[in-house]
Amino acid sequence: MALTPLTSLLTTRLLPKPKQSAEDADDVDFAKDLRGQVLIIGFGRFAQVVSQPLLARDVDVSIIENDVEMIQAASQFGFKVYYGDGTQLHTLRASGAEEAEIVLVCIDKPEQADRIVELVKHEFPTTKIMARAFDRGHSMRLIQAGVDYQIRETFESALKFGERALVELGLDESEAADTVGEVRRRDEARLDLQLTGGLAAGRQLMRGNVPTPQPAPYVKPRREGRLLNEDEAGPPAPDAADTADAEQAGV
User: Fold this and answer.
1) DSSP states of 149-161
2) Among 3, 42, 111, 128, which residue's Cβ finds the most Cβ atoms within 10 Å?
3) What's the confidence (pLDDT) of residue 137?
4) How far is CA 44 from CA 41, 60, 99, 157, 183, in A?
5) What pTM does this model have?
6) Residue 14 or residue 47, greater confidence
7) Are 28 and 83 a contacting pair, CB within 8 Å?
């Protein structure tokens, strides 16, 4: 009995906090009559970085997000983010997708990104689409859906990471950059093969850290083979000396 209050307190702290609704949350406005040159859908860590070069050039950017806490947190850093679900056509219209020059799909859920791309391509065919790909398979789907540009979310940062590792190991910076460029070209070639042949295609372009096994050279056996059933083999073939004697004898 004495432990009951403590148990209740711990249970309350461990339970997930109830999510705020957009209607009840402070400082959250629904997307309506937005007219940005660029529409960013989703404002997680990826989109936050993407927005910086655009804002540095004074591009008129509209941003929508369906996470209330993210919207509130972004406001503390000088961003106006509107609430909206980009998988809904009415939200895309209210967010200005039809008038935008480019829609940047920056959400981290592949199925939802696919839905947004499908809607924009169908409803607003003159609007360009750039999309964040979750992984290689998602990249393939986005390309096949006709986006103007896609990039795997960790690809470029991983290449940069590997490039820096080469420099730390003593390789010249220009040589490291050339190496990464060659890796990028091989990856593009592999992706082209996969678009027609599936994910298993182009595997030979991927370097692994296990040496490729080489076939062992042929070694002649030290003694001649012997038939398992000598009775069925018939008479032995004559050797070269017997053949020569037979020819001299006119056989």
Assistant:
1) EEEETTHHHHHHH
2) 42
3) 95
4) 10, 19, 24, 16, 28
5) 0.75
6) 47
7) yes
